[in-house]
Amino acid sequence: MKRPTTYAFLAASLLGSSQGAILTFSDDFSGPLDEAWRQESFEGGHLGISDGKYGLTANQGGGSNPKLTRSTTGDLDSSYETSISVVFSQFGFGGDNTQSDFKWKSFGKDGFMEIVLNSFGDMRLYHNDSDGGGGNIQPNTRIAVANGDLLTLSNAYNATSDTIELTYSVNGGDAMAFYSGGGIDGPIGDLASNFVQVEVFKWGASEFKPNLGIDDWSLKTSGDAVPEPSSIALISLAGLFLLRRRK
């Protein structure tokens, strides 16, 4: 009776080797809102899911900026990549300016980072570290985006070099480099083991309200890779052994 227990432990160890790592996810908002998401702040700004997108809007005023938040609680023990795609139905970009910011944020044990796109079409990257350092590591930079466009942002963290690579693309086009390097004071560290968040902030009194839809959002680590063939074979043999012992 000891052998099945041994093999079961081996199989469980192989399958659960990433236990305790940050909580990864991939959501295309094609169905009911996953319970892992938290709808925070301005209730009226959460428009819910429609046509495969999660809609957000905002009014000017204190506390009226809606936030969609998801916990990633765990240990960051590897590199990771996170991306988000957003359709800006009405925002500005040379049209009716809503005087608003779109903010994509991530928080971890070593601080937080946010990508901020304003309704003029300027985007910047801000980093705040655990030592109190904070500021734009990429200043406001005009990007070619218009109302109705699908903007995809991707941020890849390399745990070995402690650097990030931030890119963006418009309407499924080629990825364009936005920032590559370290943090505000050099190190970046863990900016993903607490939670991730999108916020829509209307800072001006324009009569036009922002309207955008999150098309998809994901976070994956290098630990999400498919097991090596040898590991899969070993797990299969362990399962087969257990079945035979039961018979």
Question: How is this structure best described in words?
Answer:
With 247 residues, the chain is mostly beta strands. The chain has a single domain (19-224), classed as Jelly Rolls (Sandwich), CATH 2.60.120. Helix content is 13%, strand content 44%. The protein has two helices and 15 strands. The strands form two sheets. Strands 1, 3, 4, 6, 11, 12, 13 and 15 form an eight-stranded antiparallel beta sheet that branches. The protein has a seven-stranded antiparallel beta sheet with strand order 2-5-14-7-8-9-10, with no helix packed on it. Strand 7 and strand 8 (111-118) form a beta hairpin. The radius of gyration is 21 Å and the shape is globular.
In short:
The protein has 247 residues and is mainly beta. The chain has helices at residues 2-15, 229-246, and strands spanning 25-27, 37-40, 46-50, 53-56, 67-71, 80-90, 100-108, 111-118, 122-129, 134-142, 150-158, 163-170, 176-181, 195-202, 211-221. The longest helix is centred in the last third of the chain and has 18 residues, at 229-246.
